[in-house]
Amino acid sequence: MDHVEELLSMDLKQSIKKKDRGAHKHKWAVLSMSSIPLIMTLGNSMFIPVLPTMEKKLAISSFQSSMIITVYSIVAIILIPLAGYLSDHIGRKKVIIPSLFIAGIGGFISGWAAWKMADAYWLILVGRAMQGVGAAGASPIVMPLVGDMFKNEKDVSSTLGIIETSNTFGKVLSPILGALLAGISWYLPFFSIPVFCVFSTLLMIFFVKAPKSQEKPIPFKQFFRNIKKTFTHNGKWLNAIFLIGAILMFVLFGVLFYLSEMLETSYDITGVKKGLVLAIPLGALCLTSFITGKIIKENKVLMKWIIFSGSILLGISVIVLSFSHMLWFLISLFLFCGIGIGSVLPCLDALITVGIEKEHRGTITAIYNSMRFIGVAAGPPVLAILMDKTGHLLFYILCGCSLLAACATFMAIKPDKEEPAHS
């Protein structure tokens, strides 16, 4: 009897050890995947505080300096759907790892040109375009990879919340890190990209074990027939999520541009200090994304109402911004903007990831990420025009966009109310 109890005790200990090892591997896999959106966000947003210095060093106009940011986004918007299709066809890691390599090479080319060449501008743009190619095949593919790796919807939602938190933390860190690196040398931010990409590539190689598909890739024509069928059955709520994602990024980067301009022109807050102030609303967005990812689990009805409520909160916060330009008032309202957007993003990520079949997931989430990139690219220039031409009307336009997102949520996203969250 004692011998049997001893064997049972040994089996129990081994089971606990296996479970601990599994949890340890899970944490490292999530950390590895989270590094990608963090690095891709740094790879673009980090250059925003450096643009005035680049204009002086390269003797270029403000429009030309803005193209250093824009070319990255435009290339990514065009190539993200192709990267999604390839990830469905040949595998997620087979797309992500070469994309990280391309992004790193692009950063090196831009940095070398800025360091060594007198007329470096056009080669810097070539390097930035290569970074856009890498960004298209890296960050957007993380979402479907999470859906592939975790079968439990609760784990998917929680992990996507961490991924979105990492993305947002990149936005928090970007202005601070960009200003610090540029303080050493204005071209150093370019050279930091290859270092980050090597780090993320090693993490992906050693810690992320993507499940292998047992099925052969289906022919190109059949694949697109299946995608068409997916939109036929799910088009209403998918299109709503695409629209909401684009609106949220448009409003977020628009209001960040507005706050950045106000800090410089009205309060003479620049450099690292400005980055720290911008980090306040982005920090709220980051924390809210993390908490939301933890609480939504697989409850799709809860996700819908969080999206609706977050969009309403965003709209109210934006319209109230028009009441005063006092610094504490601006920061307080932007804090609520961050909470509203931060609550919505993990819900959108979870709905679109768990609601689409695995073999089409990469393509559908890629379209969603393209729409988000369009919002990112459109926000600052549109706000610049509105600030110059319309005065307070810009707040009503942004509020209207936020309310449109709330209406799209209410009208088009209709999860099964009989599907409760599983405990």
UniProtKB/TrEMBL annotation:
PROSITE patterns: MFS (PS50850), SUGAR_TRANSPORT_1 (PS00216). Residues 29-417 form the Major facilitator superfamily (MFS) profile domain. Keywords: Cell membrane, Membrane, Transmembrane, Transmembrane helix, Transport. GO terms for cellular component: plasma membrane. InterPro entries: MFS, MFS_dom, MFS_Efflux_Transporters, MFS_trans_sf, Sugar_transporter_CS, Tet-R_TetA/multi-R_MdtG-like. The chain crosses the membrane at residues 28-51, 63-83, 95-115, 121-147, 193-211, 237-259, 275-293, 305-323, 329-354, 393-413. Pfam families: MFS_1. It is found in: Cell membrane. GO terms for molecular function: transmembrane transporter activity. It comes from the Bacteria. It is a multi-pass membrane protein. Belongs to the major facilitator superfamily. TCR/Tet family. This is MFS transporter. It comes from Niallia endozanthoxylica. The lineage of its organism: Bacteria, Bacillati, Bacillota, Bacilli, Bacillales.
